[in-house]
Write a structure and sequence with these properties.
The chain is of the alpha/beta class. 53% of the residues lie in helices and 10% in strands. The chain folds into two domains: 8-237, Alpha-Beta Complex (Spore Coat Polysaccharide Biosynthesis Protein SpsA, Chain A); 263-382. It has a seven-stranded mixed β-sheet. The structure holds guanosine-5'-diphosphate-alpha-D-mannose (GDD) and manganese (II) ion (MN).
């Protein structure tokens, strides 16, 4: 039953008068022992006068981050650690931390001091005074800057990721990939079930999910931004990797197809596309050797390209169940076998279409597509089946 005073809009004011925190600050950590206590000190200094609590979500870091936090938590009731075992992932850690909050507003901030905690009071104030659902701390909004904290290749990658994210966000945002934001908890609760636990794009996911659930949740989310200067990482290393980036691309493409094509298929197809170039380069090199005629060279180049595709898919598409040791070689073998059948499927479909409609490129393309779909579907269950 819905009490009229119990609306989302009323919650913050009601809460402010009570004893609980107004703001829960979620800090995801993976090997941040050199950073976490320093950040907590900085938060204490930045948030004087604001009732807040800190929820650290640690994925069983090997450097003892969780123990440090629990030790510090003995001295204060507004700090706790969600210590997760056998699980990994930035987005899923943030989701779990936010789900543990009862405060009207939740903030997410990185542990490595890259995010300027002194803008948090302004973010909260903006959310409350302007009645916003989300306030993003943006590296690219006015007065924001990413120059300090990102290498030049990361800056380019970051701009690209932002541009791509803009395509799916459904809202104009200068930094949809930011990992630093404040969200009204009532909004989070409404979309929590739709969020995907993979990857590094929790904010984008919340925005996309809230936009597509607009009707159910009573309108599009209201979003504001404040600029901030992205600093250099304090201690330790970044967990961002090529795997994270490729998964992101796969997920975005998948969203663009309305979820019709799974992101693992799109990653498989992208890798297959790079395999074409590897094939051509290998063909040229091998054919230049003495004693290699076209057929031999083509055969060897095919094996090189299949190996390339296997290694990349094993590292990226199927990073979560990556084959190692003996399984690697068994997997490579099954991959060769499946792809050979894929080639048969390719040639049959292409000839069948060509007989029906003698259009060279149409038939060729259909055949190639057939083998990608076949190889994906079969290697998924044969080569990388989950054990
Ligand atoms: N619990 C948990 N589990 N925490 C994680 C994991 C994980 O698997 N992976 C990373 N973290 C934590 C880190 O410990 C850190 O506190 C925070 O998440 C960000 O990780 P970094 O490794 O420092 O990421 P980054 O600096 O490369 O990326 C930042 O900028 C990106 C945009 O360029 C993050 O803010 C991203 O969210 C953001 O998209
Ligand atoms: Mn970082």
């Amino acid at each position: 039953m819905d009490h009229p005073a119990n609306t989302v809009q009323d919650a913050p004011q009601k809460q402010a008068a009570s004893a609980g925190p107004i703001l829960s600050i979620v800090i995801p950590t993976l090997d941040e022992a050199g950073n976490i206590l320093g950040l907590i000190d900085k938060l204490d200094a930045a948030l004087v006068g604001i009732p807040f609590e800190i929820i650290v979500v640690d994925d069983d870091s090997r450097d003892g981050t969780a123990e440090l936090v629990k030790q510090a938590a003995l001295a204060r009731a507004d700090l706790r650690c969600i210590h997760r075992f056998g699980r990994r992932g930035l987005s899923s850690a943030c989701i779990e931390g936010m789900a543990a909050s009862a405060a009207p507003y939740v903030a997410v901030i990185d542990a490595d001091h890259q995010h300027d905690e002194t803008v948090l009071p302004r973010m909260l104030e903006k959310a409350r005074s302007e009645g916003l659902d989300i306030v993003v701390a943006s590296r690219f909004a006015e007065a924001g800057s990413a120059e300090g904290g990102l290498s030049s290749i990361r800056q380019k990658g970051s701009k690209l990721a932002n541009a791509i994210a803009g395509l799916v966000a459904g809202t104009r945002l200068s930094d949809p990939m930011s990992g630093f934001f404040v969200v009204r908890r009532a909004l989070f609760d409404k979309v929590a079930r739709e969020l995907s636990p993979d990857g590094f794009k929790i904010l984008l996911d919340i925005v996309v999910s809230a936009n597509s659930a607009a009707e159910r949740i009573g309108g599009k989310p209201r979003i504001g931004e404040v600029g901030f200067e992205f600093r250099e990482r304090n201690a330790g290393e970044s967990k961002m990797s090529l795997t994270v980036a490729v998964h992101f691309l796969g997920l975005v493409l998948s969203k663009l197809t309305g979820g019709l094509l799974p992101s693992s298929f799109l990653m498989f197809a992208m890798i297959g596309f790079t395999g074409v170039f590897v094939h051509l380069i290998a063909l040229g090199l091998i054919h230049a050797l003495p004693d290699f005629n076209f057929t031999n060279s083509q055969l060897l180049a095919t094996i090189v390209a299949m190996t390339w595709n296997f290694v990349l898919n094993n590292r990226l598409t199927y990073a979560a169940q990556r084959l190692k040791g003996l399984s690697f070689w068994l997997g490579l073998f099954t991959f060769y076998v499946v792809c050979s059948f894929g080639t048969l499927a390719n040639i049959s479909v292409a000839s069948w279409i060509y007989d029906w409609q003698p259009q060279l490129y149409l038939a060729g393309f259909a055949g190639a597509l057939m083998s990608v779909v076949f190889n994906y579907a079969v290697t998924r269950v044969v080569t990388w089946r989950k054990r």
